[in-house]
Structure formats: C-alpha cells, structure tokens
C-alpha cells in the first residue's frame, strides 16, 4: 500500500520510487508473404504494373490456394479478362489484390462482381480496402451497384418491409457516407432523388451522415428532410435505425420546417419519427391541434410517447369542448376505431373515463391490442421494445380478467384463449383454482404469456394432471408446454427418457434463458448419446444448444478427435456453438495448432471459438492484414484488456512505421472495442477535422467503462481540447452531445461549465455511467446541473420529462424536494425503480458503508404516488396494500415498512410471496418480519411444501439454523431458489446442507445437485468435500468456481479435489485454470510459484481476490504479476496489495493501468475507486451466476 509517509519520502527525494517493471520480451517476427509461382508472377505484372500486391501475405496466400486452372489464376496470368471471372469466384479475391490493379484493368470489373464482393460478409470487415476501392469506382458504376443491391434488398410492393440487405451496419454507414459526400454539390430539389438510391440501407442513416446533410446549406431543406423521413418507410425501417439517428431525423425535419414546424401538416409528416418531440412540445400545442392530430392518426403511427406526454394529451382532450363528456365519453371509447387512433397514448383512457370496467370487453381488448401493438420493433431496437407492460396496461389486463373470469374454477379453455396477452396477470391463487381441463385446452396461449417461477410450475402440474401424465412427459407433451419448459422441474426432466430429451432439445433451447443451472446440467447429461464429437456433427442438433454446459473434461478427453476435426481448416462443427471461456480456450488452442498465420477468413470461420484467442495470437497476424483481422476478432468475441491493449499497441506500431497521421479511413477501421485503449496522447493530436469523430467513437464504445477512470478522464480531456474548451468556456448542447458518455469520466469542474442548453443532454448522458459510489461533490454537481436544466424551478412544478431526465440520479435531490414533486408525476416513474441495479448497489453498500446511494426518499415517493398512500409521518395507521399494488412498485417495494408488510392480508401476502422473495435490498428487520409472516400465514418451517419453499427466495436468508434444519429440501429447484441468494452465515449454510444431505452419502450427490446447492455448499466440511464423487465434481466445477462463500480451508479442499480429479496443477491447461474459477484460490504458495506464463493469465479475477494475501505475495513473483491483465490486477484486494513487495506492487500497478497511465494512477489507499467499482461489477456478476 502506498502510504502518506511514502509519498513524503518520495517528494523529499529520500526514497526512490520503484519503477514498474515492463516485461522484456523479444518482438516476435510477423508473418510475411510466401513466394508465388513465377508463371503467375510474370502475368501479374501486366495487370498490376508491378508485383507489389504480392508483398501482402494474405494476397500471396490466396493466390497459392487457387487451383492452377481456376478462373482467377487464368485472369491473373492474362489468359482471360477479369470480367470473365464468375461472381462466386470474384467475391473471394482479397481487397488488397483488387486495389493494386491498374486503372485499365480495374475498369473491367463489372457491377455484378462488385455487388457480390461487397455482400460477402468476410469482406465487410475490410473497410480500409473498401474505402480504397470506392474511390476508384466511377460514379455511373457506383449507381449500378447501389441499384442492384436495392432491387435485391427490397421486397416488391411493400415499402414498409424490412429490407434484406446482407450488409453490416458499418458498411451501410460507409456506403451512405460515400454517397452523401459524392453528392455534396447536388441541389435541394435534386437531392431527394439521389437519396432514394441508398434508401434500402436504414442503418446507414447514421447521425453523422444526417448531420452532413444538415450542415450542407443547400441540402438543409424541407424536401431533403422529408425524404429522410420517407426513407424510414413505415415503422419497420424506422426500427432498424439507431435511436440517435431517429432523433436526428426528427430534429432535421423540425429544423427544416422552421417557423411552421408545429403546424398540423408538418407534425403529421413526422410519424413514426417523433423521437425529438418533448412533453413541452405537446404542452405548447393547442387542444384543437391535439384533436386534429388524433383524428388524422398521428398517435396511431408512433412507437412511444415522450416522457410525461400521456398526462398532457389526457388534459388537452379532457379540456376540449370537441370531446364528449361523462357517459358520452364512455360511448365514444367503446368505438374500437377511436381507441386504436390513440396508439401508445391509449393508456390514458382509464384515467379519462374513471374506471376501465365501464368499457365493453371488446373495447378493452382493442385497447390492449393497441398498446401492445405500438411496440412493433424487435426486442432491443427501441426503448419501447425493451419495456414490459406499463402499470396502466397491467391494470387493463386485470380489468379484462375480472370481466371475463368471475370464478377461475369454472372458466373454460375458450375464455382463456380469448384473453391471450393478459393471462400473465393471473394471481397465484387464481392459477391454483383453474381447472385442469381449461389449462390443457389453452396450454398454447398460457405458454406464450411468459409465466416464470412458481406460476409456471403450477401450470405444468395442472397440465400434467389434465393430460393424464402419470410418469414422464413425452416429447410431444413437452412441446406443448412451449416456454413453460424453462421451469420444468429437474426431477421431471430426469424422468423423461434420454431419447425424448434429445427430441425435445429445440423446445428446451428456446426456454434456456429461463432455466436454472441445475436444469441445464440435467438436460445436457441426458442429451448426450455416444461419442460427443459425432453428436456435434448430427443434423438433429441434439446437444449443440447446450454445448456450453458440457464439462471441459469431456472436451479434453476428446482432444485428439477435435484436433483431427479441425486439422484441415474446417471449423464448422464448432464455430456456432455457445461456449464458456474455458471451452473457447481449449477449442481455439486446437484450431491454432499448426497455424503459422492468422488471416481474416480463418478468424471468421472459427466463429465463437475465437474468444479463446490470447495476445500471443496477434503475433500470427501480419501488419497488412491486421485491421481487418482485429475487426473480425472484436466482432465475434469479447476479450480482456491485455488483448485490446495489444491490438492498440500494434495499430500504433503500424501507423508509426508509415509516419502517417490518423485518417478518416483509419478511424472507420479501428474497432470500437479497441479505441478506448489507444494512446490518449495520439488520439489527442489528430487533425482538427477528425477530433470530434474520435471523441464520439470513443464515447460510444461499449468498452469505455471497462477502462480505468484515469483513462476515461484523459479521453474526456481530449474531447474538451478538441472543442477548444479544455479548461474554460461554457459547454452547450452540441458540446455535450460530442462528449457523450465521456462526461462520466470528466472532472467535477466540467459539470459546472454546462450551460442551460446542454444540461438536459448532460443529465441523460450521465445516466449511462456505470453504477458506483459518488463523492458528495459529484452529487452536488449533478444536483446543480438539474437546477440549471429546470431553471431552479420548485418541486411542485416538476413534470415527468424533468424527472426522466435526471432519472436514476434522482436520489441526489434533497428528500424535501423529492417529497414536493407532484404524485401524478412520480407515478409515471415506476420504471426508474425497475432500472436500478439493486444487486450492484447492495454490493457497493457492503464494500463501502459511506457509499451514499440512498434511494429511500425516491422509493418512498414512488410508493406514495403509485398507491396513493400518504408519506406523512403523522399517519397512525399503516396502509393495507394488495399484492397488485406491491407488484406495481417494482424494485421500490423494498421501501415498504415492516408495519406495511405486516398489514397485508394473509391472502395478499401469500399471493405476493414469490415477488417479495425475488427482490433484494431488504433490511434484516424486513426479512425477519416476512419470515415470521410465512410461519404465521402459510406454515411452520417443517410444514412448508417444496412449492412454498421455492417461492421464499431471499426471505430464507432470515431463517435461523433451526428453521433451515426443518425444511423439506428434497426438491433441488426449490433448494436452488433459496440457496442462490447471498447473506447466509456459515452456520446457516451448514444447517441447510446437513438438512439436504440427510442420510445420503456425500459421494452420491449428483453433479446437477452440486450445482443446485449453490451457496449451501459453503456448509460442507473439508472432509465432506473430499468425499464428493470425482466425476460429479469435474462435471460441476465450472459452476462451483462461480461461488465465493468458502473459507480458506474449504478452498484448499476444493483445490485438492480438483487435483484428484484432473491431476496436479502443473499439468492443468490454461483452459482448466479458467474452468475451475474461484477454486484456484486454494492454490498453495508453491503451486502459484510453479504456474506457467500461460496459466497465470488464465486465473479468473474472482479467484485472485480470494487468495490469502501472504499466499499471493509469497507465491507469485514480480515476473508472474507482470503477466496479469487489468481485470486480474484490479481484483487484488487492499489486504493483498499491502502484503506485496515494492516491486510486486509496481507490477500490479503496471498491469492495472498500463504503461501510458501508470504514472498518473491514483494512489491505492486501501481499495481505489476504480478497484471498488470493478469488484462491485464482478460481485454482481457472480451473484447472477449462482
């Protein structure tokens, strides 16, 4: 640990600071071009003018791979013309070869050949060559290429259809940019027709490309803006554009319309591009205009209302004399066409008429269809597509259910079928009372509702009874269950025949995301049939979808077979399989054996296995292929910091060797994952024309927040320098937009300089920052920024838009301010509570009691606003909440007081048990209160059924050892549902494991039960660990290696078990080291010292953090610590770091910060802020894996 005393000595020059030791390794030789047949070489000179193309290793390798009589070789020799090469052959030619053609030869290339080349996926990683090629393609041929791709992409006669393009988003953006640049001098009147040429590439309409149009004084006009809207086609093409591009398109149209932007005619041109509209825009519209828009289907054609927009629409409609009142309003909305016209705003109907039950059922169903139908985009394409049903929609579902189901026991299958889409709102007691016949008849509809947990299990039981399933389910019966199969009990899976499991693998695979790890383990075991490698080659996909659950040892045992499979360069058997990091390391190692060079096509053919590539792999990539190869690598897998840092270093070396400045093409071809690790000094010295582009590309990288905070700060400083505002100057909207997520790393003083025009964008960007503890100064700055945005308005004047703008940072506002915000505003903020990463924040609080993320006031206000309960302290009687009201609170339900939890009726508490048990963030008092209610309202611990135990979740952590010792733990799924939660003491874990074990021998515990026991394995003695069956252990060690609950002695015992099952640690492959996870924390000093250069980087960060400090210090040498990745180095804890020598600390610092930033690294006074944040993320990930 660097102490204050050490810094005084350093400053006085009395002690020399230890310099980080950089590993001294000889730079490996890069692959060079192989020799070419002289006959081909002589022919090439005529077509290329010289033989410089052959200096590229990928070109020479490609030529040598061609048959002597191939059309490509014939063309290169001059025996046939280039245009005689078939499109299928032409598309395989490397771009490096095509760019070297003489002009006369290049002109012979046909538009069909270019189309085939561009559409080949592998070539789309080669933007550098694509850029060079595009410059040489004459305009007329470029038009031919675009026209042919457009004709092939667009279904005839369906302007709303999604075009089938076959081009990556990057290539679409590149082609549209090239077209816009080529048409820079085209007039306003002619540009719309020019844009039609690229209308089939919606992902190419990026913010940057749209800004080029807006910044062109001739083209920043209504016809061009309207063409951009038209190019979005219907909502399906709109969905394909990025969120930022949709906002830009909307803003373009609004700007181009000038003073007329708020007229009815211009507003009606926008849908679905209403993304830039705000609640203030709606507030400024007259009631007559709102009704005119409603009459003309404006709302029907949009994807989502702006925050706070729905209450404004309701107020405008209610205040207009053009709208009926009272009973006439109910009649008005019983017309389904009028309901449909409201689109996503249909949620306001309930508030307008007072009670949804006054509507006819058909009107309610149309309202449901209208609200749900507004989410037309695919999952993840728009924010609306990622949201579940709103509070209003759930209320509508419940009204529909109440109207159609008076008695669950007598409801028919036909009625259930007619309520598809609303059935997920059935309460547990209603599901329990459904007839078996109705469930069987409506199983298809029920299966599509997304039931999870205990509700899904209850439906499965009813289906089995109704279908007279006395034993195992057949494949046909399982297929009928659909997504419900994700909650099929492990015991039921075990009962199925292996053949039926294999026949049902597609059904299981579709529900895999809902399964617990023990279910997945059981399915994988039963799906195995004979030789694993033969199964992978099977067309029936019997095991492929569950390959990531195949034990690593099974792959190791088949190592020779895998090597034989991939020896000829055919990796297709393995490339698309889902796989763990350990599996990828093993498979990639087999694929890489014997390869002297790694090129783009090889990387792409390896598929998911490239996740196993290491920094040493990059030495097999030649400089001339490097960019396209790392683009392919980063597109197919995520890597650790060492990999990205080496990619960045190589890019710098390549650029330095040519003495070339960073160009637009360079920027386009640098992978987004790599750019945050590039030298901030180099990126800060780019040409002025590029600096904003650099800042925006860094800011948009998903890996930005995985770099150290000092690096994020340097990137932010670069962006400010680019804007000419490094140390002073107000930051307006365009400045803050350029900075994007870089504002997260900016110093506090930067927030002071954000002016009123930029405040909203700054607050929205801050919401993208990772969850971490904030200093009081930072919280104050955010609060002041909010005050700037709202012009210091008081709480009573806040609207939903303002609240959504500060979002998750609402907790920085004072309690009094939050309390003063109107309830109808906060009632729309339930989604804020559901957006909170409760697990991450809980871990932060554990690591730092002074963290300062206190959402009590925010959650209390949501509770008050959502349920109508008073937050007054003078309220003497606790509000009695229904389960529905509690569920509507989402994560904010943890704000329920013990009095409020106690006041719930027995029936409502029982209905809500699984929901309450599924939340985290409860206090000990709340958990104990709910535990006691379980015993008083449901059953004593010893009388709880396994289905009831399944629902307990987090509540079980409050059970005493006596309670745990009395539970029926015979159902491994119920065990897992309570064991996966953190918070058990060693004594509790021991009691639970002992109860589970009963009279069973430890050696009889199966692998799926070892997985399902999760944190309860922390209750095993070291002697019991030694008794675990070796096969069961190796089958489950990847899951056990995600646990952190063991003592030092237990980790030692687990490691010894791994040794007995897999051999001495000296024989472990890097894949094995990764596979055992935290079990590696049991390695002794001698075993750590003996680890090889390949094994050290394979230790997981989780294992690093759990090794005793003295063991780590005495076990790993400085040279070994130099091998750590950033993720490993920052996992080193305070105690571990303090036990290290000066040289060892310097090695850890160098690994954590890298050579560019280590000199600027903050001192480690305990755990640095970055370290705490990263460990929080690691802890949260582990919890989710358990």
Give the biggest sheet.
none
Which whole number gives the mean pLDDT? 89
Overall geometric form: globular
What's the number of extended β-strand segments? Answer: 0
Computed CA radius of gyration, to the nearest angstrom:
32 Å
Number of helices: 80
Residue runs with pLDDT of under 50 for 5 or more positions: 1-26, 1166-1186
Structural class: mainly alpha
Strand content: under 5%
Helix proportion range:
55-70%
Distance between the termini: 32 Å
GO biological process, one term: cell-matrix adhesion
Organism: Branchiostoma lanceolatum
Protein name: OTOA protein
Keywords: Glycoprotein, Signal
Characterization of the model:
The chain is 56% helix and 0% strand. It has a domain at 1-30 and 1021-1186. By secondary structure, it is mainly alpha-helical. The protein is globular and about 90 Å long. The longest helix is centred in the middle third of the chain and has 18 residues, at 641-658. The two termini are 32 Å apart.
Quickly list its features:
disordered N terminus; 1186 residues
Question: How is the topology of this model organized?
Answer:
Layout: H1 4-12, H2 38-48, H3 57-65, H4 71-77, H5 87-90, H6 95-98, H7 103-106, H8 111-119, H9 127-136, H10 139-153, H11 169-182, H12 191-195, H13 207-214, H14 222-231, H15 235-240, H16 243-257, H17 264-268, H18 279-283, H19 287-295, H20 309-318, H21 327-333, H22 336-340, H23 349-353, H24 361-373, H25 383-386, H26 391-404, H27 413-418, H28 428-433, H29 436-441, H30 443-447, H31 453-466, H32 475-481, H33 490-495, H34 498-503, H35 505-510, H36 517-527, H37 532-536, H38 552-557, H39 559-566, H40 572-575, H41 581-592, H42 600-606, H43 626-636, H44 641-658, H45 664-669, H46 680-683, H47 688-700, H48 709-722, H49 733-739, H50 748-752, H51 756-766, H52 776-789, H53 800-806, H54 815-820, H55 823-826, H56 830-835, H57 838-847, H58 856-867, H59 883-888, H60 898-903, H61 906-911, H62 913-917, H63 924-938, H64 946-952, H65 961-966, H66 972-979, H67 986-997, H68 1007-1013, H69 1022-1026, H70 1030-1040, H71 1048-1062, H72 1070-1076, H73 1085-1089, H74 1101-1106, H75 1109-1115, H76 1118-1121, H77 1126-1131, H78 1134-1139, H79 1142-1153, H80 1169-1185
